UniProtKB/TrEMBL annotation:
InterPro entries: HATPase_C_sf, HATPase_dom, His_kinase_dom, HisK_dim/P_dom, HisK_dim/P_sf, PAS-like_dom_sf, Sensor_HK_Regulatory, Sig_transdc_His_kin-like_C. Keywords: Kinase, Phosphoprotein, Signal, Transferase, Two-component regulatory system. The keyword Transferase applies. It comes from the Bacteria. Gene3D superfamilies: 1.10.287.130, Histidine kinase-like ATPase, C-terminal domain, PAS domain. This is histidine kinase. Residues 542-759 form the Histidine kinase domain. Pfam families: HATPase_c (PF02518), HisKA (PF00512), PAS_7 (PF12860). Its EC number is 2.7.13.3.
Length: 759
């Protein structure tokens, strides 16, 4: 008994220790146990009752609910259903519970009670205080909802992005692509593209589509590379970006930079063309970059500022360029050069746009400087040499002053009218002529108002509208008009309206009163002279007719004496009679010539036209002149070519033409001289040439050789009597429609050329 008692006591002690340890574990456990028996009785520790907010400790399941504490009626009903299910079906359950009047959250895990618990058909409930974990769960739920929303938004953004985007797993195989990627590779859908592994960029190896992703994954840095790709049958240049992710995968997107590359190429070509164009400008151009170093200058700039190309190739700074300009004496003279240079340095930061200055350099050089700040922070300078323009402007100003002084002091009245009919410029003569006030003219009146104000000055005021018509003709119709007008005071003016190159019209008036008086006097004198000439011509004609009667009597009586009607004459008397007959013949010929000149005065000589053999006429005229040539001892040459042919004309007048020319040549040729008659012709004309080697004629004599009443001292040596041969020859030649020309020099003889038309 003692042995069994000691062993039981040791066992009891061990059991007590084990129970104490288990009780300590239970008291420190985050979960408390509650047993629910089949009859509804419950066993729970006091601590768990405190969790439910119940006092005293409830004995039945229904006592877990009260009006102000414990579980809510809904939670208790749900918990009861779960307990019933666990009792009957052995189905474990979990349920969150809320305690009335408390912020405590409880989590219940229930299962059928084991046999050793000595609660047949009962259920063990483990109750956890989930207040802290519930808050954490709520927070996590909120974060999960926010992350889900953000993920959905990001997924939608990626899907709607216009550029291809994708995601690669750690093995760098495609895991996700967006719609733009699918469209770029011409796939059916995203799943099909991922399954087939369709790459956006063709190729393999170091330059392939995975090389950039491998570098991004291995270096854990984003990578970017420009790669060509074929999209929808078009070759495009893409800028591919691969970004490593914390999951080990790589995200990527591609930007189409084909248009950008073309734009860049176009900009480069445009820049090169612009620089080539600037290099051909006459103005100097220099460009500085954002770092204020020289990046471009054209040839005129280098010439203008005497800068070597080698020095400029080192890209000097703005300040150094200004200093070099100063060394070359190509800057304005200033006292504070550092301050002046600092002000020009501010051009880089100017915001009001282009800055313009005029530089006056030593030596009279004028430069127009334009500084244009560039958007990239640089500066463009343009240097235009305006020295010649300044000089021309100065010369123009001088010319304008001279023109104004000349304009105001002209004897003519001048007025310049614009295209709208307003008076723009006038001189003092114009104002004084019309008697207009300076105040009236300074308002630049229209031509109609001006004409109305000047109407009283005219002899006929209605003629004032003529001024407006003239101005409109010059400014609108661009026609030049002229005329004359009479003033009321008896003066006469000649006017003209002239269109000017600038669209204006010039109106001029010149006082011709004296000219009109002189003109009238000259006209009266001319009429008197014409009347006197007519009287003279009639007198000569009458005298010629009157002379023929005594000449006929003298010739008849001389013929009777020569024939012996008055007895036989001595040899000496016969010579006298022969001399009388010869003089009578000569005088008769002169009378005939005078009659020919006077009878057709002012009219065309009447011709008896027929077909004439000019060869026969020329031979006859030459034969008639041979005797006179021989008597004077002149060598007479005759060359009548068959080409002389036939002409339509008056045979007698043609004979007289040749006879008068030969007579004129004989009169001017001394004994021992030579006279030549030459005729030839073409299909259109017949030509007669008479020449001699006599004393010739001076220029004054040649100019008046064909005058009917030329003074003897104007002819050759004064030997041709009245000098009627050439005037008569010219009169007959022109009657036939021909031309006659005389060529002669003193001491060189004479040549007369006559051309007669065939028809």
């Amino acid at each position: 008994m003692l042995y069994f008692g000691l062993r039981a006591r040791r066992a009891a002690r061990g059991t007590a220790q084990s129970n104490a340890r288990l009780a300590a574990l239970l008291s420190s456990s985050p979960a408390l146990a509650m047993v629910v028996r089949t009859d509804g009785r419950i066993e729970l520790p006091e601590r768990l009752a405190d969790w439910f907010g119940l006092s005293p400790v409830p004995r039945y399941l229904a006592d877990l609910h009260s009006d102000m504490s414990g579980l809510t009626a809904e939670d208790l009903a749900l918990l009861s259903d779960d307990i019933v299910g666990a009792q009957k079906a052995g189905r474990p359950f979990s349920r969150p519970l809320s305690v009335q009047g408390s912020t405590r959250s409880l989590m219940v895990h229930g299962t059928r009670a084991p046999r050793d618990l000595q609660a047949p058909g009962g259920v063990v409930l483990w109750v956890f205080d989930a207040t802290d974990s519930g808050a954490e769960i709520a927070r996590l739920v909120e974060e999960n909802a926010a992350a889900t929303t953000a993920f959905d938004a990001l997924t939608g953004l990626i899907e709607a992005a216009p550029l291809p985007m994708w995601y690669r797993g750690p093995d760098l195989r495609l895991a996700m692509v967006n719609s733009a990627y699918v469209a770029a590779v011409e796939g059916s859908n995203a799943a099909d593209v991922v399954r087939r592994g369709l790459e956006l960029v063709e190729g393999s190896g170091r330059g392939g589509p995975l090389a950039n992703a491998v570098r991004a994954r291995d270096n854990d840095r984003p990578q970017m590379q420009a790669m060509p790709a074929t999209i929808r049958g078009t070759r495009r240049m893409l800028q591919v970006h691969d970004v490593p992710l914390a999951t080990g995968g790589v995200a990527g997107f591609a930007v189409d930079i084909e248009d950008l590359e073309q734009a860049r190429g176009g900009m480069r070509r445009f820049g090169a063309a612009q620089r080539a164009m600037l290099d051909r400008l006459s103005a100097g151009v220099v460009q500085f970059g954002s770092d204020r170093t020289l990046i471009f200058c054209n040839q005129p700039f280098r010439r203008l500022f005497a800068m070597r190309k080698e020095w400029l190739s080192d890209r000097p700074e703005f300040d150094r360029v200004l200093e070099r300009m100063r060394e070359a004496n190509r800057l304005p003279e200033v006292r504070d050069f550092p301050g002046w240079k600092a002000e020009r340095r501010d051009w880089f930061r100017a915001t009001e746009g282009a800055i313009e200055e005029n530089w006056h350099l030593p030596g009279g050089v004028h430069l127009r400087v334009v500084a244009q700040p560039l958007p990239d922070g640089g500066l463009l300078l343009i240097f235009e040499d305006r020295t010649e323009q300044v000089q021309l402007a100065s010369a123009r100003d001088t010319l304008l002053r001279v023109r104004t002084a000349t304009f105001d002091n002209l004897y003519e009245a001048l007025g310049v009218f614009a295209a709208d009919g307003r008076l723009q410029i006038w001189n003092n003569k114009f104002r004084a002529l019309w008697g207009l006030d300076e105040e009236f003219l300074s308002k630049h009146p229209r031509v109609d108002a001006l004409a109305q104000a000047a109407a009283d000055k005219l002899a006929n005021p209605t003629h004032a509208v003529m001024i407006g018509d003239l101005v409109r003709a010059a400014t609108v119709d661009r026609e030049q008009r002229a005329g004359r007008v009479d003033f009321a005071d008896g003066r006469h003016f000649e006017f003209a309206a002239v269109p000017l190159p600038d669209g204006n019209g010039l109106f001029t008036m010149l006082d011709i009163s004296d000219s009109r008086r002189i003109e009238r006097a000259l006209r009266d004198r001319n009429e008197a002279l014409e009347a006197a000439d007519a009287v003279k011509t009639a007198f000569v004609a009458n005298m010629s007719y009157e002379l023929r009667t005594p000449l006929t009597s003298i010739s008849g009586f001389a013929e009777m004496l020569r024939e012996g009607y008055a007895g036989t004459l001595s040899e000496e008397a016969g010579g006298y009679v022969a001399a009388i007959l010869e003089s009578v013949d000569r005088l008769g010929m002169l009378v005939d010539d005078v009659l020919d000149l006077t009878q057709n005065d002012g009219q065309t000589t009447k011709l008896d036209r027929s077909e004439v053999d000019l060869v026969r006429v020329a031979r006859t005229a030459a034969a008639a002149a041979t005797a006179a040539m021989q008597r004077k001892g002149v060598d007479f040459g005759v060359e009548i070519l068959p080409s002389t042919g036939l002409v339509m004309g008056d045979g007698d007048r043609l004979h007289q033409i040749i006879a008068h020319l030969l007579k004129h040549a004989l009169a001017g040729t001394a004994a021992g001289g030579r006279v030549l008659l030459h005729t030839d012709g073409t299909a259109a004309i017949a030509r007669i040439l008479v020449s001699d080697n006599g004393s010739g004629m001076g220029a004054a004599a040649v100019a008046r050789a064909f005058d009917r009443f030329a003074e003897p001292d104007a002819c050759r040596d004064g030997e041709r009597a009245l000098g009627l041969d050439l005037p008569l020859a010219k009169q007959f030649v022109e009657a036939h429609g021909g031309t006659i020309k005389l060529e002669s020099e003193p001491g060189q003889g004479m040549l007369i050329t006559v051309e007669m038309p065939r028809r």
